[in-house]
Amino acid sequence: MSVREAELHLIEHGREVPHLGEQYETIEQQNDAYTIGMWAFIVQEVLFFGGLFAGYAVYRFKYLYEFVAAHHTLSVVFGALNTFVLLVSSYTMARAVRAAMRQQHKEQFKYLLWTIFFASIFMVNKYFEYSAKYHHQLIPNQSYSAEEVIHHNHLKVENGMVDLGARKVSLEEFTGRTKLFFSFYFIMTGLHGLHVLVGIIVLAILAVRAYSDYIRKIPHADYMPVEMVGLYWHFVDIVWIFLFPLLYLMGGQ
Amino acid sequence: MATHHHEEHTHAQPVSFYAKTLWVLMALLVVTVWAGFLKLPDWLGITVALTIAVTKATIVIMNFMHVRFSSKLAWLFAGAGFFWLIIMFAFAFADYASRHWEPVQGW
Amino acid sequence: MATITAQTGTERVNYLNVRTTVASWLLTLDHKRIGILYLLGITFFFFLGSLAAATIRLELATPKGDLLSSDTYNKMFTIHGVLMIFFFLIPSIPASFGNFVLPMMIGARDVAFPRLNLLSWYFFMIGGMLATIALLKGGIDTGWTFYTPYSSAFAKGEVSLAIVGVFLAGFSSIFTGINFLVTIHKMRAPGMTWFRLPLFVWAMYATSLIQVLGTPVVAITLLLVAVERSFGIGIFDPNRGGDPILFQHLFWFYSHPAVYIMILPAMGVISEVIATFSRRRVFGYHFVAFSSLAIAIIGFLVWGHHMFSTGQSIYASILFSFLTFLVAIPSAIKTFNWMATIWKGRVHWEAPLIYALGFLGLFVIGGLTGLHLGSLATDVHLTDTYFVVAHFHYVMVGGATMGYMAALHYWWPKMTGRMYPQSWAKLAALMVFVGFNLTFFPQFILGYMGMPRRYHSYPEEWWALNLLSSAGASILGLGYLLPAVYLVWSLKYGRIAEKNPWGARGLEWEAVDTLPHPHNFERTPIVTRPAYDYAHPEEPTAIFPAPRPAYVGGGGKDG
Description:
The complex is a heterotrimer. By secondary structure, chain A is mostly helical. Chain A is 74% helix and 4% strand. Chain A has helices spanning 3-12, 27-62, 64-71, 76-101, 105-135, 147-152, 171-215, 224-248, and strands at 156-158, 161-163, 168-170. In chain A, a hairpin with a 4-residue loop joins strand 2 (161-163) and strand 3. In chain A, 52% of the residues are buried. In chain A, strands 1-2-3 form a 3-stranded antiparallel beta sheet. Chain A has a single domain (3-249), classed as Cytochrome c oxidase, subunit III, four-helix bundle (Four Helix Bundle (Hemerythrin (Met), subunit A)). Chain B is mainly alpha-helical. Helix content of chain B is 66%, strand content 0%. The longest helix of chain B is centred in the C-terminal third of the chain and has 26 residues, at 72-97. Chain B starts with 14 loop residues before the first helix and ends in a 10-residue tail after the last helix. Chain C has a single domain (22-543), classed as Up-down Bundle (Cytochrome C Oxidase, Chain A), CATH 1.20.210. In chain C, the strands form 3 sheets. Chain C has a two-stranded antiparallel sheet with strand order 1-2. A two-stranded antiparallel ribbon of chain C has the order 3-4. By secondary structure, chain C is an all-alpha fold. In chain C, a hairpin with a 2-residue loop joins strand 1 and strand 2 (11-12). In chain C, helix 3 (70-106) packs parallel to helix 13, helix 11 (351-374) packs parallel to helix 14 (422-449) and helix 14 (422-449) runs antiparallel to helix 15. Chains in contact: A-B, A-C, B-C. Chains A and C meet through helix 1, helix 2 and helix 7 of A and helix 6, helix 7 and helix 8 of C.
């Protein structure tokens, strides 16, 4: 833009829409800023979860047999169902964003509700999974027992040594290492679940706003909040896309 | 002051775009589960699983997150995060993977 | 907005007097006020951290551990490190001066996300308060590095509370980084191209990259330690199959780049100060700009140099050592360019420049001694000795803190409308320089001779050097106290500062009033000249178009 063009632009453009912040010149500038701001936030979330994935990778590398044995106690059905549910929720979220961009507030409201619905199914599934772990004493605290892992994998235990086929480890080591798997399982899926929960709350707030925009027939509502929450929601979906195979599907050893 | 609301250009796509994306992701989910039950050596199993996961993630990023239509800057930010993750993994594994190589005299 | 030109008596409206209620400060969205709020918080935590340092040097003035028990001593160096690193050095320049000056330098009215800015200040203050409460409730003795399994399984004390404090400060840092990245990308005034930016902005950009990419990793790592403590879920405890070295990998992945968060902004300040007080554009502008990015990026690839003696694979150590040597190069490039800037410039020996010159000398020593430590063979002898302590204090105090003091003395007139007495300021700068060297140079020798760090007593033969170090610390302390006195004095009695007391180039000096208007500029500038254009003093850096019509619905930014 030449200096002259810049001058003219500044003179002609006033506050175009009510939701334009004082620090911005145009709504495009504001929207662009919000988009890359949200991406910067997602980048740091990637690194946040990334630390957990790195830790998991290291221990899986070190204790492959114990981790494989432990992971067999996870339900692939529940895991796959949850993946399915989150993918669908990403679709409904994208539809909600699309509706917001086209100022179709009723559709926006509808798809936000669908997203909350699928997210809630995810959380309910999580509850069932966690309860099952609790019943089998697989919560990795003081009351942890490797009994279920041994039982589920039909492992032989002789003289305090667990037979893993390729090698034997002491029961104590086996307990510690499988417990490590579950530590990661609960921390990673727990942190992810927390993000889903926060997402549900924010989506509910957006849904209320969408309904209000619909009732009051707002012609030029700010769609950026919905788009940005959409980015967050898709990120949460992507984390699960990686968690599912790494935790639930280790290769049928 | 005349506030001229020029129609804001948005990334909204036709519904079919999002629907097709979902179908592709579903198909990849089926592949993921199927591959999970193949008896593969561990390194291959991981590679397959991660390749599929990265493909799914890329599709979500490009289509649902609209990066396909976004500025180069958004691409750069999106890429930077994942690239930095690779750095963390690569260098940490440089340590763990090489611990059992030929020992150095006196080390 | 009538207030743009309203006069209340003879006082022009500025960011301080536009509204003066407590609420207008605690709920402010003005980056300048947030910068001041940060300045106050940072000063408080610096003071607390200094008290811990004074206690340490007092104990080490005599060889016997007679002042403090070893447990208490451990708590002292822990809290000194935690407060100084997370609550002083990391936010110091970015959150206070960065917030204040960055939007002005690029011709913007504010940062991209003013509410996020305020939130990040609250996270910082609450985090700092929690860390202080942890201190008051008996303290922690894990060292600021929180090494496992001690911190996760054995340490008594309020480790989890301190971790929550650090976690919050971490997110404060991340939010500031996000804000600055977007601000620099999207809010530059027309004509402010990337290569017309002041080098301080390049430095802040590089710093923000590190903040966003690195901090979350230490956040999750410390969270895992807190989880391990609170729920017994073992990740790092060897008894449960955990690997303490994994903690160190994850911890140092952030904590090494963190030192570049501390030094890059100071380097940015040095670029500004040296240009202004030499009346010359910075020599090799592009090299300095790209060096900032290079330091940020390569800085992520060297963290294993903190782990040479931990059992890390020799091959990984070789890789990290090589990259450590590589990361020194961009810093050296900058140093040479700064020196070339001063050479044959018209030098004005004001206080900010004294601090900048101190930075140059001390940073070079600190940086070079980093190579001793980055070299595998020598590190075996020097690691965990006072050599390391001296090295990092040379770069963090001799470097980063000198940069902070330079910034404080450089932008003080812009922020407060007052000048401080130059002779006192120069005296304080000299005291800091002398006191600093007396404190920390002996520690290089002590470390070379084998004195280990983190011990409250030592053999008699090292008494003289330790006593010298403690004596130096008292001079250093005095050197830091002096500015506290004369700067506060200047608020009431200092000479009123004009718009550009240093005769500097740059939008914050040429186009923004001393005691800036709440929106910085009455009209958006259009930039037409490069940075540091001292060769063409008759051309202003920016021009201002005809006024825009007043807009509807613009509310105030404060309270």
